[in-house]
Write the structure tokens for this entry.
Amino acid sequence: MTLISDLIKMGRFKGTIPPSDDIPSMNPEAIEMIADRVLALDDSDFHDLLEHFKTRMASDEPNRSWERAVIAYFILNGLRIKDTLKRGKLQQHCFYPDTPRLRLVKA
């Protein structure tokens, strides 16, 4: 059972849900276009948007707007995770590019 259907049953949902026929299917190219737009953000825009959606998530009731804010926040948060992973990979590669991984076999 989804959050929206639970809220509808309780009479607390005030938004409108488009029929599933009206929602276009997402293909990999469409998702990659969203990723390209997120990657094109500069740091100040990125942090402003992240805070904006974080505030909306905290203040709104669970409705369509709140759901969109949650999804947008986690898409943007994915950029932070990507940067952290990339930094870790670069540090690991830059500091020890040709050094074999040694371990103590017997002490």
In short: Residues 42-96 form one domain. The chain is about 65% helix and 0% strand. The mean pLDDT is 77.
